[in-house]
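Tokens for chain A. Residues wanted.
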């Protein structure tokens, strides 16, 4: 019997302990209210995170566009620098080229012909070197005066020539690629 009593006591303890705990359901609206406020808080966080994501995305797009523009600009600058890299050297050589031209215009005797031939060879070599760097002479005589290419230093009145036409070249002008290095000094008909 004792055993029976022990078993009953154990069974009773198990039943008491195994019963589920009762939840406090006195105020279910309070529980719902806290869930709704938590939900609202989460929604607000989600909206804030979406806004931050959109701002970050827009910032990234601006930075990408700035970088693309930077690459294009530096590429253009590099191309321009390469295109006109010889401009300083050409500017230094033009006075020497002018002096060679003047020297070749002087009348020479037979004794000086060898010397003049040497000068003319050096002159041609200089012109060929400039031509290889895309330096070209500006055409003048018989062309219409263009203030972008010509520098008028004198005017003349010639009835046989049309108005605003270059009559004589005083000093040669040169173009490097598409940039005027030195305008040609010319005499223009009125």
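Reply:
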């Amino acid at each position: 019997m004792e055993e029976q009593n022990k078993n009953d006591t154990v069974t009773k303890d198990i039943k008491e302990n195994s019963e589920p705990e009762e939840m406090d359901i006195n105020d279910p609206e309070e529980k719902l209210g806290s869930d709704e406020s938590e939900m609202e808080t989460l929604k607000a966080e989600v909206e804030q995170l979406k806004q931050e994501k959109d701002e970050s995305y827009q910032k990234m797009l601006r930075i990408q566009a700035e970088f693309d523009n930077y690459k294009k600009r530096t590429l253009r600058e590099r191309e321009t620098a390469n295109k006109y890299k010889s401009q300083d050297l050409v500017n230094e050589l033009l006075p020497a080229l002018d002096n060679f031209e003047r020297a070749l215009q002087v009348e020479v005797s037979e004794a000086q012909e060898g010397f003049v031939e040497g000068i003319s060879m050096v002159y041609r070599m200089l012109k060929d070197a400039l031509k290889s760097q895309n330096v070209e002479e500006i055409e003048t005589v018989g062309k219409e005066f263009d203030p972008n290419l010509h520098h008028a230093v004198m005017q003349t009145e010639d009835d046989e020539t049309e108005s605003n036409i270059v009559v004589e070249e005083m000093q040669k002008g040169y173009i490097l690629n598409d940039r005027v290095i030195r305008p040609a000094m010319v005499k223009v008909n009125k």
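The radius of gyration is 47 Å. Residues 12 and 118 are 131 Å apart (CA to CA).
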